[in-house]
Amino acid sequence: MRVDGSGAVEAERAVSVTARRSAFARVRQGSGQLVHELALVPAIGLAILIGALVSDGFLTSDNMTNLLAQSAVLGVVVIAETLILLVGRFDLSLESIVGLAPMVVAWMIAATGAGGLGIGLDPLLAMALALAIGAAIGAINGTLVVKLQLNAFVVTLAMLILLRGVVLGISHGQTFFNLPPEFLYLGTATWIGLPASVWIVAGLFALATAFLRYHRIGRSIYAIGGNAAAARAAGIRVDRIIIGVYVVGGLLAAFAGLLLTARISAVTAGQGQNLIFTVFAAAVIGGISLEGGRGRMVGALSGVLLLGIIQNILTLSQVQSFWIDACFGAIILISLIISRVAGGRQDGDG
Question: What average pLDDT score do residues 231-235 get?
């Protein structure tokens, strides 16, 4: 087929125009995402102002330190859930992993008279085992979702219920105290004026941000969440990455369980219960798309800080727990509206 000179020029111009439009769309989408994330900054500032007006103790260094330490566990699980959401999946069972992983090792360590097995594992080995349990559960979830193509909601909901039953079964509803000092270190240690857990979570957010932005697999995670079929056609190992993300999510949830255990110096049968709702709230109001492929860790971190500040204010105000739940729901809706108005309509929205 013969193409004359003018036809070639027109085709080249059409390609150029299409490329410019595509580049403009990517810039606009990135700008909109940044505005969406920064929209929480006024909400966080307003929450801090309200906290200072409500309680004289809110802006004290002790309270700020306590607020950050309490938000550390939520932050780790939010990182885990964010990674899974970015590939277009989700995991409801993370809250049960927070409770199960430390419970299993505490049960193994505890004396038989205290309801445990009395095995006497080395504490460091026990903590490594807890992380391995979380990773193994994540691998099971990922395999069922990816290889057997089961519905992620049903699989992870079933796993949540199953693991919660296991926790109650092995603990008989009791709390394990008198844990080895190594278990409690991250809840008692202070590094450069702040709890060790705060520094660790800050490092995890920084690491996750750099990984998603600069690493090949991190960029592949966004590609899979945006269009799994196109990512597969581009040579990305979609199934392996999704399963890997589930494994990392389970491992991080187990680590969050160890952080919580260290902070309260015990393992309780209800540890982590209902945490997943706050996790999803922090991720969503931080701009993480439930459909995958859109959102950044800085937004997720903003969501964690906002919810942590709100919970702290309500606690200082001695608000009863059921009103705290109601206020949480209200602030989530308000934050979503503020983020939506400030960020505008995103590309691809209806």
Answer: 93
